[in-house]
Amino acid sequence: MDGSTAVIILTLIVTYLIWFVSLRRSYKGPRVWPLVGSLPALITNAHRMHDFIADNLRMCGGTYQTCIFPIPFLAKKQGHVTVTCDPKNLEHILKTRFDNYPKGPSWQSVFHDLLGDGIFNSDGDTWRFQRKTAALEFTTRTLRQAMARWVDRAIKNRLVPILESAMSRAEPIDLQDVLLRLTFDNICGLTFGKDPRTLSPDFPENGFAVAFDGATEATLQRFIMPEFI
Fold this sequence. Notes:
Transmembrane segments: 6-23
Cofactor: heme
Number of strands: 2
């Protein structure tokens, strides 16, 4: 390697480091490293992703920004990520200026295998049409009454007996698992007309529930990790 080449390489490295330091100052949350961004923290905490994100949100006051692709000209476009749980920000994104925040092709490609072109994975006219259709369904008195009856029965006949049984035996219970089963049974019963009865005293395993959990976990990993991974 001749001297001029070494100087060029050194200049590029120094220029990148100066750019990176100025970029990193605007980020909070997990540490951002040169070239690999916050990927090391994401990979290390992949087994506790929700807790990891919640920890960062608490540390940063409800909103933080990070970068998973700190490369000049690409960082802001493809690697910049904003995470928030602030109610005002959520209202701004989901209600006040909803049209300013389309899901876009990257989001849609990640979720397409699981959600297809449904209301949770569509934009523009397709989303508006599905939203109007869903709104008509969910505002009918018949559906509201059916939902109330179904949920009321599930709570009285399944949830309460399980909690009372655990209390009488002074045994711990996984409340998150119990509430997930309650929600799963209610959604399947109301949507498909089929009650899987996963919320039972013996907590049976349900093939569809297991498959759905696997699909959502795989989708989450697709969303977090860069496409080449």
